Amino acid sequence: MEKRKFGRTDMQVSVLGFGGAEIGYNPDQTQEEVDLLLNSALDARMNVIDTSSSYHNSEELIGRSVAHRRDEYYLLTKAGNLDPYGKSDWSSDGILSSVERSLRRLRTDRLDIVQLHSCDAETLRRGDAIDGLQRAREKGYTRYIGYSGDNDAAELAVDLGVFDSLQTSVSIADQAAIETVIPRAVGAGLGVIAKRPIANAVWRFAEFPESPYYHEYWNRLEKLDYEFLRRPLDESVGIALRFTLAVPGVSTAIVGTTQSSRWQQNAKYARLGTLDEAEFRSIRQRWNEVADTSWSQEI
Question: Most Cβ neighbours (<10 Å): which of 140, 143, 194, 196?
């Protein structure tokens, strides 16, 4: 699998990474399924695993599955949000404690990046959360520190000059960052991670999805009405993923799934390389023609 340089760090990351949210949020997820999913992904030369302290038992599942292969992948987690229900602790001690808990859950003595998990701009300005990350780095818990988030908070995170990486939303349905925060991050030497890189593939639903989680992207894609979304699902998902991988500055795209077969399918798309320039420009042009000025990044 293609590797790309990751900002000013010494990391060479696979263009496709694994996102640990879905395995944590899936109440029926088994350890055996995660073992197959992650080990087969590592066998395919994927080398980025991204999770969070707030994704239920995602860290534990990952630790039990691939801690024995720790030298084969970069391990990223997030701190600040403590659980899926909105509990958070942005204090310096709280961040440090969260990182220590993540190390135990992930069964490792080191992380490659710890990211603040979508805190707002005011929290960033106060500085306590950043101080917690810096303390974690000083203790050797993590090599690098990053910010995961969007819009004005992401732009502030870049401008503060303290982070090594930015994880932000970018996809066929979420292109604001292409002209705003991503160029600034690249200019500042940050590695850029694309989250939600296939817009949750919301067009797979035959009708308006029940869960509010999908509503914004569904509504946007109804208006954008890309021609390729009327093609077979496998082909359209491949185009969407390769579009995101073609965005200048993106080093890796984090895709979450609970199924090994689906991850392997995404890996197949990634191996095809980035989208050709004409199709990339066509999607960008459609966005510029149709996108509403209120379409900010989805957090």
Answer: 194
Is the pLDDT reported for residue 36 higher than 90?
A: yes
Residue 283: Cβ within 10 Å count: 20
Neighbouring residues of 11: CB distance < 8 A, sequence distance ≥ 6? 5, 74, 112, 144, 191
How are the residues of the chain apportioned to helix, strand and coil, as percentages rounded to the nearest 5? Answer: 50, 20, 30
Q: How far apart, in whole angstroms, are the C-alpha atoms of residue 115 and residue 40?
A: 26
Tokens 């082909």 map to which residue? 235
pLDDT single digits (tens) 181-238: 999 999 999 999 999 999 999 999 989 999 898 999 999 999 999 999 999 999 999 9
Report whether pLDDT(4) > 70: yes
| Token duo for residue 77 | 């987690």
**Predicted model pTM:** 0.95
CATH number for domain 11-198+252-272, candidates 3.20.20.100, 3.20.20.300, 3.30.70.260, 3.40.1350.10: 3.20.20.100
* 165-169-173 Cα angle (round to 5): 155
Ranges assigned E (strand) in 80-172: 111-117, 142-148, 165-169
Whether residue 85 has pLDDT greater than 70 = no
Q: Are 256 and 197 in contact (CB under 8 A)?
A: no
- pLDDT exceeding 70 applies to what percent of the chain? 99
- The SS3 call for residue 36 is helix
* pLDDT for res 274: 85
Amino acid at the residue 40: S
E strand map for 36-133? 48-50, 74-79, 111-117
Q: What is the β-pairing status of strands 165-169 and 142-148?
A: parallel
Chain centre distance of CA 207: 27
